[in-house]
Every structure is written in structure tokens, then in C-alpha cells.
């Protein structure tokens, strides 16, 4: 496990076509286990990124496998509230801004998806 934290602030990757962005994000999350340098210690989900961890998300299988491999998956509680998704959280756990900022501040490297 590396001292790398992945930060996911959207359910899409990049700007432009939303459908393409959603497909790119799913592809990226599916490849995290295969990157050089080892698994990240944490994946932090904020804003619409929390949707990827909720019931019905196509990312649940990959995220669940990462969680089982020891990657801690944290979801912004305020964001879950905003999208009315607290009851739908299916992978990882709810967190808060203090914990998320703390993890970002001590990470050896932060990768933003």
C-alpha cells in the first residue's frame, strides 16, 4: 500500500461530453488495481463523485474489490446529504471535511481523477 491518495470530485472525468466523461471515470477506477506503484491508501469521493459509491453505480464491483484489497474508501457526508444518497451508500464509509482534508494534507502524493 502506497502513501498515495486518489481524490474523486466528480462522477465524470474531464470536461466536454458527459457520456464520454462517465465512461472514462469508470475505466479509470477499473484500472486502479493495475497501476505501477501499488494501490493507493485511500480513495476520497466528494461532490458528485459520491454517486460512484452508491446503489446502481457501475463502479461498485471495482470499488468493492479495491476495498477488499485494503484501500479505504471515504465519502463526503455533506455531499451524500446534498444528493439525498446517505441511504444508498453501497461501498466505503461516510466521512467529513476534517478527515478528508487531514488525509490530503499528509499524503505523499494526491492523484485527482
Please provide a brief summary of the model.
With 113 residues, the chain is of the alpha/beta class.
How is the secondary structure organized here?
Layout (H helix, E strand, L loop, with lengths): L3 E5 L9 H14 L10 E4 L14 H9 L3 E5 H6 L10 E3 L1 H10 L2 E4 L1
Parallel strand pairs: 1-2, 1-5, 2-3, 3-4
Main β-sheet description: 5 strands, parallel
CATH homologous superfamily placement: DsrEFH-like
Number of domains: 1
Counted by DSSP, the helix tally is 4
Read across the widest sheet, the strand sequence of neighbours is 4-3-2-1-5
Strand tally: 5
Report the CATH C-level class. Alpha Beta
CATH topology annotation: Hypothetical Protein Ychn, Chain: A
What are the low-pLDDT stretches, counting only 5+ consecutive residues below 50? none
- β-strand percent reads 15-25%
CATH architecture: 3-Layer(aba) Sandwich
Helix content: 25-40%
Cα shape: globular
Can you describe this structure?
It is a single chain. The protein has 113 residues and is an alpha/beta fold. It has one domain: Hypothetical Protein Ychn, Chain: A (3-Layer(aba) Sandwich). The chain has four helices and five strands, in the order βαβαβαβαβ. It has helices at 18-31, 60-68, 77-82, 97-106, and strands spanning 4-8, 42-45, 72-76, 93-95, 109-112. A five-stranded parallel β-sheet has the order 4-3-2-1-5. The protein is globular, with a radius of gyration of 13 Å. The two termini are 19 Å apart.
Q: Any key phrases for this structure?
A:
113 residues, 4 helices, globular, five-stranded parallel sheet, 5 strands, Hypothetical Protein Ychn, Chain: A, alpha/beta
Amino acid at each position: 500500500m502506497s502513501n498515495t491518495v486518489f481524490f474523486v470530485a466528480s462522477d465524470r472525468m474531464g470536461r466536454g461530453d458527459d457520456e464520454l466523461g462517465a465512461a472514462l471515470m469508470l475505466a479509470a477506477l477499473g484500472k486502479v488495481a493495475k497501476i505501477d506503484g501499488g494501490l493507493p491508501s485511500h480513495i476520497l469521493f466528494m461532490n458528485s463523485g459520491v454517486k460512484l459509491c452508491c446503489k446502481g453505480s457501475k463502479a461498485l464491483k471495482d470499488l468493492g474489490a479495491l476495498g477488499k484489497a485494503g484501500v479505504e474508501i471515504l465519502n463526503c457526508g455533506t455531499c451524500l446529504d446534498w444528493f439525498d444518497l446517505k441511504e444508498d451508500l453501497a461501498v466505503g464509509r461516510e466521512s467529513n471535511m476534517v478527515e478528508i482534508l487531514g488525509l490530503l494534507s499528509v499524503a505523499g502524493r494526491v492523484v485527482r481523477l
